[in-house]
From TrEMBL:
Pfam families: GIIM (PF08388). This is Group II intron maturase-specific domain-containing protein. Residues 42-96 form the Group II intron maturase-specific domain.
Length: 96
């Protein structure tokens, strides 16, 4: 197919050391599991801070609508990962 390989991003390594499309992997009870990479979580928190900022000139209705749209999209993208605890702590963080 003559595709060009980006050697900066391409890596052959252990599964738990690799970030792939925002996911990372870990081993639990002999099985490989999927989780969200910490960089993806940091990006999500930064985006939530930006959306909930009171200095962005949006009304509360617009702010809630945009925040809901972002969170629903984010959760639907990462729903194959183990996210229950992460979503609980993120919800607590957002409410604070």
């Amino acid at each position: 197919m003559f595709l060009k390989v980006n050697w900066e991003k391409t890596v052959v390594d252990e599964a738990w050391k690799v970030k792939f499309l925002g996911f990372s992997f870990y081993q639990c009870k002999g099985k490989m599991r999927i989780r969200i990479h910490p960089k993806s979580v940091a990006k999500m928190k930064a985006k939530i801070k930006k959306l909930t900022s009171r200095s962005n000139g949006m009304g509360n209705v617009d702010r809630a609508m945009k925040l809901r749209r972002y969170i629903m999209g984010w959760v639907n993208y990462f729903k194959i990962a183990d996210v229950k605890k992460l979503l609980q702590t993120t919800d607590e963080w957002m409410r604070r």
